Amino acid sequence: MTVSMRRAALTVLALATSFASLSSSFDGSQEPYPSTYTVPVSAPVLLRDGTILVGNGTRLEHADILLQNGKVAAIGSHLAVPAGVDVITITGKTVTPGIIDIHSHLGVYPSPATDGNDDGNEATAPSTAQVWAEHSVWPQDPGFETALEGGVTTLEILPGSANLIGGRSVVLKNVAASTVQAMKFPGARQGLKMACGENPKRVYGHGRNTAPSTRMGNMAGYRAQWVEAKAYLAEWKRYREDVAAGGERAAKAHEPKRDLRLDTLASVLNGEIDVQMHCYRADEMAQAIDLSQEFGYTIAAFHHAVEAYKIADRLADHHICAAMWADWWGFKMEANDGIQENIALVDLAPHSCAIVHSDSEEGVQRLNQEAAKAMARGKAMGLNISPEHAIQWVTQNPAKALKIDDRVGTLEVGKMADVVVWSGDPFSVYSVTERIYIDGALQFDRAHPTQTPRSDFMLGQISTTGVTP
Asked: Residues 93-136: pLDDT tens digits?
């Protein structure tokens, strides 16, 4: 082999290696900030003789569930008790999957609320797709503990809604940890936070003399971003083809400049990241669906979606979930046509995906009660929504929207043992969580509060009553 041929071969190898490094950020095969979460070692537990709401519409009475090696090992009536298993009788109590909040800002807007902790919105440009929410999450936020007490075992942490494109979300296990990596749900996909309506045009259109300032400016802004991302993908595709061709073509190939913002958008176009979109009005949701079809990406869910009831059938046809509040309404113009029957009506559409979310450090503590309010409004209009069905709004359906329903969201053999034991009907205001397991490990025990893991921030804190909180 001549010197020139050897140099050409080395050039091709270097170019291929460089592209492989970039493409790994698109296909998720090499996560730059990997999860370090590990399943805690815990003794097996058999919860005996309770009511189990499986999370898929099934209700089991006087049933048992065995948690072993971090998984649901068995579920049914009169299960045999393996040696070494701790048996806990839960007669009269209810067991559900761990609650999943698909829309949370815990950690990025932590308590105490101060300017120094205000890390949820990178409000410096209409598109900040390059930022990742996990790089703002403060694991010591005491909100994680209060959310856990409300039965929340998994959360999607999103950037705020100041921007048309706000950045990447992260899915977390609700466990005490000193780093966000130790909370990251292993293998969970990131989402892309987008926002339509009033927020982006208010942030950029008034006082800054920058676009967008109207809803048509919003749409034009999205389209410009996706056009740029498609060109970016095409540029890297040509480069890869040149490298693969070898010889003189490879030697003359020029590596495109890496762009972190466009990396994110390219990952969305490649189907590796789904869009989680803040959107209130039905007409804007319909336009966002058209936009996604124009550029070929997937919207997993519309968040807040106070007018989802107007297009429930269309959302179902496009396999898009609606993540909603039970009764938030009227606090700005785009929320003016919200109704308390929204969740029940969306749920009524065939093959729909209704979700109850929080978007609140307070609401996340009682998502079960938010779902109960939606059940009550459905009943008032003649819809009899059972507890075993409604529990899907905070378990299976958000798991589907996050594409983690193969691991959580329902209590089935082989899935993660994220389990909540309630003192009674979880949709009663008189019921509270008693025991909460994440991957089979007891993370909250109301009867023994000193055994509950605490964040460093809360250690040593004294409440106004003089009792350690």
From this structure: 999 999 999 999 999 999 888 999 999 999 999 999 999 999 99
Nearest by Cα to 154 from 167, 140, 144, 141? 144
Residue range(s) defining the domain that contains residue 403:
99-237+256-409
Whether residue 423 lies inside any domain: the answer is no
For residue 33, how many C-alpha atoms fall within 13 Å in the half-sphere facing its CB? 16
Please state, in angstroms and rounded to a whole number, the distance separating the CA atoms of residues 448 and 423. Answer: 15
What CATH number has the domain bearing residue 376? 3.20.20.140
- Reading the block at residue 238, the tokens are 């040509």
Instruction: Tell me if 366 sits within 8 A of 150, measured CB to CB.
Output: yes
Query: For the whole model, what pTM was predicted?
Result: 0.92
In a domain, 341, yes or no: yes
pLDDT digit string, tens, across residues 152-205: 999 999 999 999 999 999 999 999 999 999 999 999 999 999 999 999 999 998
Residue 83 lies in a domain: no
* Rounded-to-integer distance, Cα 263 and Cα 273, Å: 11
Contacts of 132 (CB under 8 A, 6+ apart): 33, 167, 168, 170, 190
* CB neighbours of residue 99 within 10 Å: 32
- 103 domain-assigned: yes
How many structural domains comprise the chain? 1
Strand order in the sheet with 354-356: 165-168, 191-195, 274-279, 299-304, 321-324, 354-356
151 and 371 Cβ atoms separated by less than 8 Å: no
Q: How many other β-carbons are positioned within 10 Å of the β-carbon of residue 245?
A: 12
